[in-house]
Amino acid sequence: MTQAPAPHQPSPSAPRQPLVAVYPGSFDPITNGHMDIIHRGASLFDTLYVAVAHNIDKRALFSVDERIDMIRECTAALPNVIPDTFSGLLIRYVADRGARVILRGVRAVSDFEFEFQMALMNRKLGREIETVFMMPAEQYSFLSSRLVKEVAGLGGRIDCFVPAIVIPRLLAALGSDR
Fold it and tell me: Quick count: other Cβ atoms within 10 Å of Cβ 34?
């Protein structure tokens, strides 16, 4: 029986490299579930890029610049969080930022199936980059930007689903005068 090689262990005297992670997504808009992952990720990693994807396949309510502005305001108290944008291959963006980790939130089994497939593809493209899955807090396990937009568009309360700065922007974008 052969054993897998032991993971590389730096010598105790070697300086520790900063641990940089990327949390990619559409964030259209950013939700309290996203913020839960961001806060927890910021406590684990030295630098956390919150990277808004330029996704031409998704029809976004907010422009990339508007999403970055909301993320910047929501994360202003987290000095190690850097809002940013990317297009193209995520693995290339991650490597360009000197990151070694892709952080992904997983709400349900259905999320996991997709995320698992993406993690395996990313591993094939960049073996030195790991994907870390993080479960959101229980109260956000059902939450998605799509549901928030739907509830807001139908006149429902969204104050428990999104940061306060998002509410007026979301209502204005949806044409609601609530």
Answer: 26
Domain of 76?
20-142
Q: For residues 174 and 28, give the distance between their C-alpha atoms in angstroms, rounded to a whole number.
A: 12
Examine residue 107 and state whether it is found in any structural domain, yes or no.
yes
- Exposed/middle/buried for residue 52 (C-beta within 10 Å: 0-12, 13-18, 19+): buried
Token digits for 128? 């030195």
Q: Which two tokens stand for residue 89?
A: 């291959």
Provide the annotated active-site residues.
34, 58, 107, 145
From first to last of the 178 residues of the chain, give the pLDDT tens digit: 556 555 555 566 678 889 999 999 999 999 999 999 999 999 999 999 999 998 767 789 999 999 999 999 999 999 999 999 999 999 999 999 999 999 999 987 778 888 899 999 999 999 999 999 999 999 999 999 999 999 999 999 999 999 999 999 999 999 965 5
Residue 68 lies in a domain: yes
Number of structural domains (the chain) is 1
Separation CA 97–CA 83 (nearest Å): 12
Is residue 88 in some structural domain?
yes
In a domain, 47, yes or no: yes
